[in-house]
């Protein structure tokens, strides 16, 4: 495998914005890039060494095959359309398609049965942020194969995180980070609404958010560590404080005539913590509610 990879040959299956970017970046680093896309017109927009009309031909031409399409349903539709599945034997498949842990487990087993090695990647940036020192890509799968592909992966991003030999760790971490991002973003939007309702300058809000964010990030890391250690003795912030605060926010949102769904969910989760007897534990004990622990 190392010999084939050192020959710098790779096929890219799927030429959406991210797939196109990956193909171009590898081509610029003198890789022999073969491309395939369901819409053939897109293949002519990429500076590739070879263009194939059948996906199995793209797979056959390279030991390493990168897949980047809309979703894992599309991955299976494309690959199940291959008439001779023997073409996958001995191949390395790197799937950068967004999906769920359950989907990735099925794909990993599917490729294993065909004699291929599967790596799953979750790219944490937009195409224009690819190839930067802080470009984060979450990887999971066969460790030895990952090591063989590391030089190529480093072209795509300077912060490659290998999460272990379970390929499903990649989408799980992707959803973990996105849960934080979306939760924070929706909260940010409520903050904007509060400021607008009270005539507060949004520039002031933006500045203050930037100033307090580093401290909260350290606090979040500390709270994660209390869960890792299983120690919920109060050291920083008891749940009781957050129970009251979340209800005040929910009440204020209602009184302002804003949409209450998001803030009601947060207040409800924290009320459950009180009902389950976690009120006088560290706020990180909320994980017990989320995991349905008694």
Structure characterization notes:
This protein folds into two domains: 2-164, Rossmann fold; 201-290, Orthogonal Bundle (N-(1-d-carboxylethyl)-l-norvaline Dehydrogenase, domain 2). 52% of the residues lie in helices and 13% in strands. It has helices at residues 2-6, 17-28, 55-61, 72-80, 101-113, 143-156, 169-197, 202-229, 239-255, 261-275, 286-290, and strands at 9-13, 32-36, 50-51, 64-67, 92-95, 117-123, 136-141, 159-162. Strands 3-2-1-4-5-6-7-8 form an eight-stranded mixed beta sheet, sandwiched between helices. α9 runs antiparallel to α10. 32% of the residues are buried.
Topology, please?
Blueprint: H1 2-6, E1 9-13, H2 17-28, E2 32-36, E3 50-51, H3 55-61, E4 64-67, H4 72-80, E5 92-95, H5 101-113, E6 117-123, E7 136-141, H6 143-156, E8 159-162, H7 169-197, H8 202-229, H9 239-255, H10 261-275, H11 286-290
Parallel strand pairs: 1-2, 1-4, 2-3, 4-5, 5-6, 7-8
Antiparallel strand pairs: 6-7
Quick structural overview:
This protein is an alpha/beta fold and 294 residues long. 52% of the residues lie in helices and 13% in strands.
β-strand amount: 5-15%
Report the strand count: 8
What is the ordering of alpha helices and beta strands?
HEHEEHEHEHEEHEHHHHH
Poorly predicted segments: none
- Reported by name, the CATH topology of the largest domain is Rossmann fold
Helical content stands at 40-55%
Assigned CATH class of the largest domain? Alpha Beta
Shape: elongated
**Structural class of the helices, strands and pairings?**
alpha/beta
């Amino acid at each position: 495998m190392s010999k084939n990879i050192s020959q710098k040959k790779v096929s890219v299956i799927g030429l959406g914005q991210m797939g196109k970017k990956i193909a171009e970046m590898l081509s610029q680093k003198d890789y022999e890039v073969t491309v395939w896309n369901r819409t053939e017109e897109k293949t002519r927009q990429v500076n590739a060494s070879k263009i194939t009309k059948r996906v199995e031909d793209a797979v056959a031409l390279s030991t390493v095959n990168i897949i980047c399409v809309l979703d894992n349903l599309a991955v299976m539709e494309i690959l199940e359309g291959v008439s001779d599945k023997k073409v996958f034997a001995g191949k390395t498949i790197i799937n950068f398609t967004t999906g769920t842990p359950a989907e990735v487990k099925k794909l990993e087993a599917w490729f294993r049965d065909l004699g291929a090695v599967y790596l799953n990647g979750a790219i944490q940036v937009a195409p224009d942020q690819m190839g930067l020192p802080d470009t984060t890509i979450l990887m999971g799968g066969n460790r030895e194969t990952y090591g063989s592909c590391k030089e190529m992966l480093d072209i795509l991003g300077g912060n490659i995180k290998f999460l272990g030999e379970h390929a499903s760790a990649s989408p799980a971490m992707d959803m973990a980070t996105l849960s934080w991002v979306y939760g924070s973003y929706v909260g940010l939007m409520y903050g904007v609404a509060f400021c607008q309702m009270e005539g507060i300058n949004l520039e002031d809000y933006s500045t203050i958010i930037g100033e307090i964010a580093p401290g909260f990030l350290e606090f979040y890391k500390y709270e994660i560590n209390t869960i890792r250690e299983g120690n919920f003795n109060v050291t920083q912030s008891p749940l009781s404080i957050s129970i009251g605060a979340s209800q005040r926010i929910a009440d204020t949102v209602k009184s302002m005539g804003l949409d209450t769904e998001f803030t009601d969910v947060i207040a409800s989760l924290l009320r459950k913590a009180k009902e389950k007897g976690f009120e006088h534990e560290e706020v990180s004990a909320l994980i017990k509610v989320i995991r349905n622990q008694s």
